[in-house]
Amino acid sequence: MNIKEFVVKESKEISLKDFNPSYTGKYNANNKKAAAKRLERNKAKMAELQDKLYAHDRHSILIIFQAMDAAGKDSSIKHVMSGLNPQGTQVFSFKQPSKEELDHDYLWRTTKALPERGRIGIFNRSYYEEVLVVKVHNLVKYQKIPEELIDKNIWKNRYRQIRNFEDHIYKNGTTIIKFFLHLSKDEQKRRFLKRLDTPSKNWKFSAADLKERNLWDKYQKCYEEAINKTSTKNSPWYIVPADNKWFTRLVVSEVIVQTLKKLKMEYPKLNDEQLANLKAYKEQLIGISN
Ligand code: ATP
Ligand code: MG
């Protein structure tokens, strides 16, 4: 799969309306099986690469999921995770900030949650909420920032701060993958109705979701701007078609595998002395079992 189809280049301004949320590439409802097979293959590959990442212990991977409600963040994460070793993986979900979190700068809570070397960290929502929901609902005034420091350049400044932050962690070994799950408004409606009609899904529906849906256009505009301002060569955004969950998962797995493959990683090599020791240990063990 050519993942370049989904990446947002640093040099190019994109318009979300040019991306089709129901795009499925060469796959369609009739050859969904082939997509599922490829997803399984990707999961196996991911597990292999994660093992190397852990052993090499230099790089870390940060995977960010952002999307409108019901776009499939949770289920994509569930699928990605099912291909990984839980010991080397962490998932963090970011909701409305707590009192303690508001007593710090907006990058504090996510910075604390960054993955260690050798690990894969998944953010279900992230510091990008700071230029999305915070912008849509004008929440800056609740963030306890000294008033004299807030001016009309706040969003421009935040984009720059985010770019700088991502550059900083990238240059220290964190590879960042950012997914925007691109859902259509119609498909969101269908999924909300399903949540309302299916008892086991009822809990997933909240009145707040409808409120946010009414601000759809505003959100799309904010997403578009945030993506354009913060997609960089080293920390790119991928716009993933989200109307077909099976395709969303496939693209996500494909991007992760291809990104991991590009990293220079190797299993630690033992020197001659260590190898000689291993030989001695083996002889000892064989001796013991006798
Ligand atoms: P799901 O609905 O699948 O459980 P979710 O991520 O939508 O997952 P919710 O508890 O429904 O979780 O919503 C969390 C809310 O918190 C979202 O509306 C999000 O925009 C909001 N949020 C996240 N970060 C911030 C922030 N920094 N400031 C204000 N609101 C935030
Ligand atoms: Mg929600």
Commentary on this structure:
With 290 residues, the chain is of the alpha/beta class. The protein has eleven helices and five strands; from the N terminus they run αβαβααβααβαααβαα. Strands 2-3-1-4-5 form a five-stranded parallel beta sheet, sandwiched between helices. α2 (73-82) crosses α10 (245-262). The longest helix has 25 residues, at 32-56. The protein is globular and about 75 Å long. Residues 69, 209 line the site of magnesium ion.
Q: Detail the poorly predicted runs.
A: none
The neighbouring-strand order within the major sheet is 2-3-1-4-5
> What percentage of residues falls in helices of 4 or more residues?
40-55%
The first-level CATH class name = Alpha Beta
Count up the domains: 1
Largest sheet: 5 strands, parallel
Annotation field: number of helices: 11
Fraction of residues in β-strands: 5-15%
Under CATH, the topology can be stated as Rossmann fold
Q: Based on helices, strands and strand pairing, what is the structural class? A: alpha/beta
Query: In total, how many beta strands?
Result: 5
Radius of gyration: 22 Å
Which CATH architecture is right? 3-Layer(aba) Sandwich
Small-molecule components bound: adenosine-5'-triphosphate, magnesium ion
